[in-house]
Amino acid sequence: MRICANQTEVSQLVAALREDGAASGGWDTLFIDDSTGQRWRRTYLGSGHHGGGSPVLIQEPAPTVDELLTLVAGSPNLPEVAAGAWLLSELDPQGGYKERLVALAEEAARHDDLARAVLLVGWGGLDDDTNSRSSLGRHVVDVGRDHEHVQNIASRARRLLGLRHTAAPLKDLQVFGLGS
Length: 180
Prior knowledge:
Layout: E1 3-4, H1 7-16, E2 18-23, E3 28-32, E4 39-45, E5 54-59, H2 65-74, H3 78-91, H4 98-110, H5 114-123, H6 140-161
Antiparallel strand pairs: 1-5, 2-3, 3-4, 4-5
Helix pairs in contact: 2-3, 3-5, 4-5, 4-6
């Protein structure tokens, strides 16, 4: 496991680790497992939202976008899948990961792994058709192409889940062991 996201498991793991400092201006806490030397970072996914976000532990060094995509495609741990998709959306707010993530969701659905598909769509923000890529200094045609691309991804994600619009609650905190 590269990401520990189930809140009971996060609490148990933190209790077994030694605190080893802070990072990100004090928002993240660093830990070390003295028995293995493995380093962990506690961060709060969704910390920009009201309430401070959900604490998760991520093994250091932090996974890259490619590693996160591999993780969400193959992890048997559903909280890790949801947190990995959520982390992708926070690491790349412009959505460069979305094309590959929607393809993974489609592949999961083709293999009757609907739980994974729903988590990837919901926590990866794939149903959001907002174009977050910067338009500064770009030609209007290129901005239009970006918009169409993001709309296509959102349409594929909604079609995959049989949704008509984005109002469906796809982010259920119970996947992390929290109440909804």
